[in-house]
Amino acid sequence: MENFIHWNIDPIMLKLGPLQIHWYGLIFATGLLGGFYITEWMAKREGKDTKDLEPLFLYIVIGMVVGARLAHCLFYDFNYYAKHPLEILYIWKGGLASHGGFLGVILALYLYSKKYKTFSLSWLLSRGSIVAMFIATFIRIGNFFNSELVGKKSDFSFAVVFDRVDNFPRHAVVLYESFSYFLIFLILLFLYKKLSYQKFTKIAFGLVLILGFGARVFLEQFKTTQSEFVKEYSLLLSMGQILSLPFIAIGIILLIKGLKSDKLSS
Q: What is the DSSP string of 196-250?
């Protein structure tokens, strides 16, 4: 047991009387701030006015949190929240589903594009694909600091014992996800700088759906079962995999459509 990495970080970084600063919140905020500056950099690079970027991130945060919370309550623990509907509002107790957060952000971008005409929805979705992978990288690091979404038991030398959970060495699957999302971020950033703005706009959103949710489907095999629905019916796929497959299918359609339209316009 002593050969494995032991992880026992207190999720609360600092206590100042009644005020508590959590590692997750700090890391999440760092990701959002970095995402803001990346978006600002892209907008300036393309000669766009950046005055409307601040409300954009307010839309994103609200959409992400509301969508993630509702998806968790609906797909991961519906029976409990159906009996305790008021607890849907207790987001400080945890329980956020990334698939719902992603849908919430898409809706937020749509609403934002309708109110603010500076950026089109296609621009927001394509450039937002880069930012989404950057922020997702930090979210999974935050999950690691919370010792949550732990992986299945493992005897690999790089397995982690989450002392706040139990005494078994497990896959640090959230770190696998974090690394995967950061790699996808780098790929998208490379394509953004390499391709014309028009071509990137046509393929980026479909590509991020395929790569991001494809990574999720693969890495779910290392996670413990999170959904009561999956446990109850002993499904072959995890809820994360089930929810990811439609995103991948849509991504393939959008990518093919984008590549075809690019050939027609060239």
A: -HHHHHHHHHHHHHHHHHHHHHHHGGGBPP--HHHHHHT-SS-HHHHHHHHHHHH
Using alpha carbons only, what angle is made at residue 191 by residues 215 and 36, rounded to the nearest 5 degrees?
Answer: 80
All residues at 6 or more sequence positions from 28 whose CB lies less than 8 Å from its CB, including other chains: 135, 138, 139, 142
Q: Is the dihedral of CA 78, 81, 82, 86 positive or negative?
A: negative
Strands 169-170 and 160-162: antiparallel
Spatial contact of 181 and 140, defined as CB atoms under 8 Å apart = yes
19-22/160-162 β-pairing? unpaired
- Residue 127's nearest CA partner among 100, 109, 103 is 109
pLDDT the model gives residue 86: 86
- pLDDT for res 189: 98
Of 4, 217, 31, residue with least CA distance to 142: 31
Taking the model in full, what pTM does it have?
A: 0.89
DSSP 101-117: HHHHHHHHHHHHHHH--
pLDDT at 265 (0 to 100): 60
pLDDT score for 249 = 97
Q: Are the CB atoms for 238 and 219 separated by under 8 Å?
A: no
Which residues are within 8 A (CB) of 14 and not within 5 positions of it... i.e. 6 or more apart?
A: 20, 21
Residues of the chain scoring pLDDT < 50: 1
